[in-house]
């Protein structure tokens, strides 16, 4: 009888102990690369570092808040989005069509290279506008999208895959 009661106490104690430790253990931060349209976008890592897929810097997954638009939805997005700035973050040469290969340039886009933006050039941009960010393969644009949202921009959209994935000629210059 005493043995049974003791056993019961042990079971209850171990049960509640487990409950407490689960509640108080700190939530683990999940790290991820900034989405660029390839399969590693959905990967989650335990610590900071570099993505094994795209080589981009890993950041707290929860801090990635910009949206993405796919190349096939681009035309619809451009037509339906009011107060839009289209931002090309490639080099001046690529923007002007001298890239090798030349992936083309979007109509009505403004060129500010990523190097300038990362040095503080983003401060000249209008926070009230929706900013579509693009480059060739969505690595630079994804980095800039993250930079902008980290600095108070709320409406930032990254062109997933970049110009190299855009098949629609009507959106090009
Ligand atoms: Zn990645």
Can you give a write-up of this model?
The chain is an alpha/beta fold and 173 residues long. It folds into 2 domains: 28-64, no CATH class; 65-171, Oxidized Rhodanese, domain 1 (3-Layer(aba) Sandwich), CATH 3.40.250.10. 29% of the residues lie in helices and 15% in strands. It is built from 5 helices and 7 strands; from the N terminus they run H-E-E-E-H-E-H-E-H-E-H-E. It has helices at residues 2-24, 74-80, 92-95, 114-118, 140-150; strands at residues 31-33, 58-60, 67-69, 84-88, 109-111, 130-134, 156-159. The strands form 2 sheets. The chain has a 5-stranded parallel β-sheet with strand order 3-7-6-4-5, with helices on both faces. Helix 5 links the parallel strand 6 and strand 7 (156-159). The longest helix has 23 residues, at 2-24. The chain is elongated. The model has no long low-confidence stretch (mean pLDDT 90). Zinc ion is lined by residues 33, 40, 51, 53-54, 56.
